[in-house]
Structure formats: C-alpha cells, structure tokens
From TrEMBL:
The keyword Transferase is annotated on this UniProt entry: no
This protein's UniProt keywords: ANK repeat, Repeat
Lineage of the species this protein comes from: Bacteria, Pseudomonadati, Bacteroidota, Flavobacteriia, Flavobacteriales
Domain of life: Bacteria
The protein, known as: Uncharacterized protein
ANK repeats (start-end): 37-69, 70-102
Lipid biosynthesis found in the keyword field: no
Amino acid sequence: MENDRESFFSVIRNGETADVVRMISENPDLINARDERGTTPLILATYYDRGDIANALIHNGAEVDAKDASGNTALMGVCLKGFTSVAKKLIEKGADVNARNAMGASCLIYAVTFNREVIAKLLIGHGADKGLKDARGNSALDHARMQGLPALMELLGNT
C-alpha cells in the first residue's frame, strides 16, 4: 500500500488525470489516503491547481473538507494559492467556507492575508463569516488593515 500511495501522490503532482482515475478504480482506498503530513489526494491536487484531478477525486468520494495535520482543508490551500476556479469547484461541492485550521485561520483569513480579492468575494458570497478570528485574535479585516489592502478593507466593511 505504501508504494501505491507514493505512486498515487506522484501522478497527482504530475497532473496525470487518466492514471489517477485508473489507480482509484484499481484501489479505491487511495481516494482518502494520507501522506506523512496528513495531506489527502484532494488537498494535494488542489494545491497544485489540478482541477480535473480534483473533480475525479470528488466524483469518486474524496472527503471535500478533510484536513491535513495542521488542520488545513483543500479550500484553504486554494485560498492561499489563489486558484479561483478550483475554489469555485470546491464550494460547489459543499466545501465549508468557514472551516478553520489549528491556528484558527479561516478560508477568508487566508484569502485576505494573501491578497486574493476575487476569492474573498467568492467566499463572502457563499456565507463566509467575516468575524472569525485566528489564534492571535485577528479577523480577516484586521489582516487587511495590517497589510494596507484598501479594496479588501472595503469588501470586509471597514468604515
């Protein structure tokens, strides 16, 4: 199983969609396998902006809100990276826009921290809680203020 998992994660990184689909059909347990950091195939696929692979994984039963060892979800990763189309797909498939990691950071806090305005708008449009605070007591608006991001400050209701 170890070699299967390593091979599976490798084909995800390389964007080999057909191989991912084949490997899932041969070994369905791979769908929610984890690497040494607790990363799932879906988290890995979304982190590398592999939308087709993410779709195949979700279609075959991948847990959309699975968390890695730090408590990060696939949606959090795309908020950090700025992959809007993958963020839309995850939200469409029911990803929790208010999920929080071990440090209390939410998807919206990540989107704001990394100046991903389009994704921040998308999250808010799908019910992201603007008032969530991370472990340091900072909300998304606080992060926008600290970084001097006026468009995001306006979006988050800075007056």
